[in-house]
Amino acid sequence: MADRATTILQIIPELDTGGAELSTIEIAEAVVVAGGRAIVLTEGGRMLDRLKATGADVRIFPAATKNPAKLVANAAAIAKIVEVEGVDLVHARSRAPAWSALWAARRTGRPFVTTYHGAYNENSAAKKFYNGVMARGDLVIANSGYTRDLIRARYGTPVPKIRVIHRGVDVAAFDPDAVAPERVERLRAAWGVAPGERVILQAARLTNWKGQHVVVEAARRLHAQKRLEGVVALAGDAQGRDAYVDGLKEAIRAGGLEGCVRLVGHVDDMPAAYLAADASIVASIEPEAFGRTAVESQAMGCPVIATRIGAPPETVLSPPDHSPRSMTGWLVPPGDGQALADALLWALSLDGPARADLGQRARAHAVGAFSLRQMRLKTLQVYDELLKTALADHYVAARPQLDG
Residues with Cβ < 8 Å from 21, sequence gap 6 or more? Predict the structure, then answer.
C-alpha cells in the first residue's frame, strides 16, 4: 500500500477544547506531513480553523448525537465515506461516535482504532456496555498507564491489544523562551493583575470534578491566615454549568475572597498564562486520565501542584517519592484544601535560584517524556502496525528535527 494514498479517518464530536480534540488536530497534521490523507468528521467548534489549517479534509458531521436511531444512520454514512474516499483505517476518540465508527469499520472491513481519553464513570451495567466501545478497537490507545490499567480491569482487554501513548505537549510552543513579554502583560492586564502581583493559576473547565471549589477553600484558608499572596485565576469555560459557577461565586463571597479569586474565562494563549503564573494547580477530585495541564505547566517551568489520583503521579515527580533535588512539582490528596494550601505556600516560598532549578528540571522532564513528537510518532506506528505502512518513517523524514 502506498503511504501517500493512506487515508486515516478520525471522528470526534466537537472541537471546542480538551485533550481528545487537540489530539485529533495534532494527529491529522502528522498524517498529512507523513504524506497520507487525513479525514476528520466533527460538528466543529472554536478549533475548527486550526484543524483545517493542517490540510485535513474536514467534514461537518453529526458526531455528537447519542440518539440510537441517528447512531445507526451515522454508521451507514461513515461506511459510505469509507468506501467512496478509500479510507484505510477508522480512529474513534469518543464513545457515542465510536459506536457508529465501529459498525462502519466492521461493515467495510477496515481496521478500527480507539483512543481511551477519559476515566469514564461506570455506575451501571448499561453504562459499562456503552463505555466499552472504547476498548473494542483492533488496537486500543491508552493515554496513560493509569488508563491502561483501567481498561484491563474493566474489560479484560488483553495487554497485546493496548498501546500506552501519553498525551503530547508541543514543547516548542510551550517554551518560556518562545513567549514574548507582551503576551504575558496582555493576559495579566485582562485578568486585572497589578504589576508585580503574584498569580496562582488553575486552567480547567468549570465543573465539580476539576476541583475549583477545593482551590477556593485553599485560598480561604490562606486568606484567613493572612498568607494569601496575589490573585487566584480560575481559567476555563462553564459550558452551561451555571449552578456550579454560582456555587463558586458564593464560596468566594463567603470567604471574603472578592478580588483575590477571579473567574477569568477561557484562555487561548496558555503558554503566556503559565508564564504569567507563579504556580499552577491541577485540583481534580476524580482521576485524570492524563492531565495535560500538569505537563504544560512543567514545560513552561511553572511550579505545578496536582492531585495524587489518576495519571498525574506518572507525570509529576513529587516528594516523598522524589527528593527536593529531583522533584518537578507537588502531589496532594484530592479534595484536601489544607494540603493544597500547604503545597501552595511551599511553591510560593521558593527563592529565585530554587524556582529556576525546579523549572529547568520540570521542563527537561516534560520534553524528555511527553513531547508532541513522541505522541505523533507512536500513533503513526499504531497505524503502520495495522496497515503495514511506513507513515512514522515518512514523518521523521519530513521533520527530522524536534517539532514539539
Answer: 12, 14, 15, 45, 47
Where do we find the cell 514539539? 404
Phi, psi of 41 (to 5 degrees): -100, 125
Give 10-residue mean pLDDT values along the chain (404 residues): 75 88 95 97 95 97 95 98 98 96 98 91 87 95 95 94 95 96 96 95 95 98 94 92 95 95 95 97 95 96 97 95 94 98 96 96 96 96 98 94 70
User: CA separation (Å) from 94 to 25, 89, 118?
Assistant: 14, 16, 9
Three-state DSSP at 265 gives coil
- Is beta strand 304-307 parallel, antiparallel or unpaired with respect to 279-282? parallel
Can you tell me the distance from the alpha carbon of 57 to that of 44, in angstroms, rounded to the nearest whole number?
13
Those residues whose C-beta lies under 8 Å from the C-beta of residue 214, and which sit 6 or more positions away, are: 283, 285, 334, 335, 336, 337, 340
Tally of residues, the chain: 404
Question: Is the separation of the CB atoms in 201 and 179 below 8 Å?
Answer: no
Decide: 329 and 304 in contact? Cβ < 8 Å. Answer: yes
102 within 8 A of 136, measured Cβ to Cβ: yes
Look up the pTM and report it: 0.87
One-letter identity of residue 59: R
Distance of CA 78 to the CA centre of its chain: 26
CA 261/CA 201 separation, integer angstroms: 10
